Amino acid sequence: MDPIIKISNVSFQYSQEEKNALNGVSLDIQPGEFVAILGHNGSGKSTLAKLINSLLLPTEGEIIVKGMNTKNDDMLWNIRQTAGMVFQNPDNQLVATIVEEDVAFGPENQGVDPVEIRKRVDDSLKAVDMYEYRKRPPHLLSGGQKQRIAIAGVLAMNSECIILDEPTAMLDPSGRKEVLQTIKKLNHDENKTVLLITHFMDEAVQADRVIVMDGGKIQMEGTPKEVFVNIDLIKKFGLDVPQVTELAHNLINEGIMMPRDIIKIEELVDAICQ
Amino acid sequence: MSIKIEQLSFYYGQGTPFETKALVDITMEIKRGDFVGIIGQTGSGKSTLIQHFNGLILPEAGTVYIDGTNIKDKKVKLKLIRQKVGLVFQYPEYQLFEETVFKDVAYGPINLALDELEVERRVKYALELVGFDYSSVKDKSPFDLSGGQKRRVAIAGVLAMKPDYLVLDEPTAGLDPSGRNKLLNTIKKLHENNITIILVSHSMEDIARLADYIYVMYQGRIHMQGTPHEIYKDSEELKRIGLGVPQVVDIMKALKARGMNVDTDKLTIEGATEEILRVLRSKKDA
Amino acid sequence: MLKNLTIGQHYPVESKIHDLDPRVKIMVTLIFIVSLFLINKFQAYLLVFVFLGLVIKMSHVPLKMVIRGLKPILIIIGITFVINLFMTPGEVLYQIGPLDITREGIRQAGFMALRLVLLIMGTSMLTLTTSPILLTDGIESLLNPYKRIGLPAHELAMMMTIALRFIPTLMEETEKIMKAQKARGADFESGNIVRRAKSLVPLLVPLFVSAFRRADELAMAMEARCYRGGEHRTRMRALLMVRGDYLALLITFIYVGAIVGSRLIQI
């Protein structure tokens, strides 16, 4: 299958800065995949997201979204429709004063027929479990609920791919859980391609594939197991590993025999209590 | 010497249809030298509670004593209470406003009407306490710093008032793991410097690691209180009221459920490692 | 908490008036305002009372809410009353120092004050029964024909929507920053005007910085959601005139007809 997003050798430099924010990044994302991008603040991960959405254009290299080059101006709106974005601050991405009006904002911009918009808005709100809140003003909702509204806004545009730029960074534990469950459900049930940018390890563990970025480059790539095995390397990049992985690592160092690639509680319990 | 709260209640929008109970019958005492954690979901009342600690909100029902002084007393100068109890809000970097780091940190001391020399001494003390090199950072614009640095400058702005108590509301929100660890170490250092710390958070890992005593807030009430060990014993209840528990707690519980005779009240990875090793090795010896 | 304040004092209940097309409500309000200026005798106010009373009754908005809208402009009403009371020449009834109160003055003052009161009550019926977003839609739709002569109808409406969306957020933020600076010993309440103005700097700078950051992020989020101005844009909720709307217009025209008629009758 052709990748839905093909990033080839992309570099990017912000105009007022000397150093490249991205340095020769290449990455293919397959349709239906759930990819997590990890990295500390300033590692270039958010820049990458904006490049895919054509909010920024690569200084070098190119990005092809579903066959469309992000540099091609004529395809701009098709690209943004294909790869929808959810941002970090829930307050700064909702436009309207009523939830359902906000979800309708994307399809309205695309010039979709009113009857069809109504249907999409209702379906999207149901998909994120926010249908009962459709008449509420967004500023009275919780952070997790606002982010789910933002996700519904992307769904209503019929995006095949959802790019989420640290969507849970400003949320409390229950808000984070809500959002992650929603993302997983959309990936699983609706076959949406998900690109989740985060620095929470427990979220990255749930992805099909994890990419670790540092200094504008991809430093590690693989399944969560393959990546989190390298505890020392991960820590070098200013990140953490799940507590269970660290615990297993400590036990191995003390001479206890168990697999090195433990990332879930059940795996550790099985290894110890066999 | 303590922050002492007796039967404090607070309602938002009293007498309107929007009336909500923010705090109900809170009684607590935080002594000098303590390291206290307050945890609770968004909307559990913790933010309203801490604003009573320095008189930003004056108690409607109940009393707040700071080192024995009732803050509602007419003779009390609130400025002095606010000097004694420093309050760092969530995302404090958004309150920076001066052209230089020095001027921003000096804002508090100047408001206290201290002389120039003392202001400078305080600014230096505060910036160094949060881990900056004073001479290289003081003339920079706070807006040119990174997110984590801005936050530390903002905290220095409160520390420059030399508070005896420091209340921090979600100090690590939005930081990446290394930024978080750095800041938590700084907070630990502040405590070692004889500042009483009250850490408000919904991050269980941070609180479990640092606090000696924890208050759990739920629907405006103190729902549970005790040492971290006592609190995390009831991890099911914590989850029920929407709080996470450190993964270590879940691991130890799962091992116990599979018949391994481990002590489940381990909160840190180090503690858990030792405990599992102890049980595994004693089994081997037997 | 500030964020619970409702903006534009919309009073959300179900009623025939709430259900009317916002364009109709805006037009009726405009006609109502004009009608107040057409009145030239006290007796005609009876017509206005009947009309406005009917609207208030049908809207299910408590009279108390409508009258509350008068509070902020009580001073203006007072000043209007006093000026008319003393400045109208005519048959002198009382004298207070150098000021004369005339029969015509009393009549004129009452007349003008009543006009203002009715004006405010009438226009607040529009905001009380129409949500801000519908009001914006209505204004955009009414201004649409003037696009051809270069009036940015869509942009104006979008600006209004975003302002309404962010007012509660920024109010909350102001409160937060104020508290944070108070925690650092700031004093916003005492001192003379210069001192007080100066004390606002630590509040205003962070507020502006934050507002610009929000604007920046919002612009990016809007672009990511394919926003490109009003061209090719559709709306989920199309405004549709139904029988009730035409009926409301008809009643309004009859009312204005009666007001105009009252000018011609000599009583």
Provide structural commentary.
The complex is a heterotrimer of chains A (274), B (286) and C (267). With 274 residues, chain A is α/β, with parallel strands linked by helices. Chain A is built from 11 helices and 10 strands. Chain A has a single domain (5-241), classed as P-loop containing nucleotide triphosphate hydrolases (Rossmann fold). In chain A, the strands form 2 sheets. In chain A, strands 6-7-8-3-9-10 form a 6-stranded mixed sheet, sandwiched between helices. The N and C termini of chain A lie far apart (40 Å). Chain B is an alpha/beta fold and 286 residues long. Chain B has a domain at 246-286. Chain B is built from 12 helices and 10 strands. In chain B, strand 4 and strand 5 form a beta hairpin. The model of chain B has no long low-confidence stretch (mean pLDDT 91). In chain C, helix 2 (22-38) runs parallel beside helix 11 (243-264). Chain C folds into 2 domains: 1-130 and 238-267, no CATH class; 154-233, no CATH class. Chain C is mainly alpha-helical and 267 residues long. The model of chain C is unreliable at 1-7 (pLDDT under 50). Classes of the chains: A alpha/beta (274), B alpha/beta (286), C mainly alpha (267). Chains in contact: A-B, A-C, B-C.
Characteristics:
heterotrimer; A: Rossmann fold; six-stranded mixed β-sheet; four-stranded antiparallel β-sheet; 10 strands; globular; C: 267 residues; 2 domains; 11 helices; 2 strands; disordered N terminus
* Class by SSE composition of chain C: mainly alpha
Helical residues, percent of chain C: 55-70%
Mean pLDDT of chain A: 93
The number of strands of chain A is: 10
Question: Looking at CATH, which topology of chain A would you report?
Answer: Rossmann fold
Oligomer: heterotrimer
How can the largest sheet of chain A be summarized? 6 strands, mixed
Classify the helix fraction of chain A into a percent range.
25-40%
| Most residues in contact: chain pair | A-C, 41 and 32 residues
What proportion of the residues of chain A form beta strands (DSSP E)? 15-25%
Give the biggest sheet of chain C: 2 strands, antiparallel
Provide the succession of SSEs of chain A.
EEEHEEHEHHHEHEHEEHHHH
Beta-strand proportion of chain C:
under 5%
Q: Which structural class is indicated by helix and strand composition of chain A?
A: alpha/beta
Order of strands across the main sheet of chain C: 1-2
Distance between the termini of chain C: 55 Å
Number of domains of chain C: 2
Order of helices and strands of chain C: HHHHHEEHHHHHH
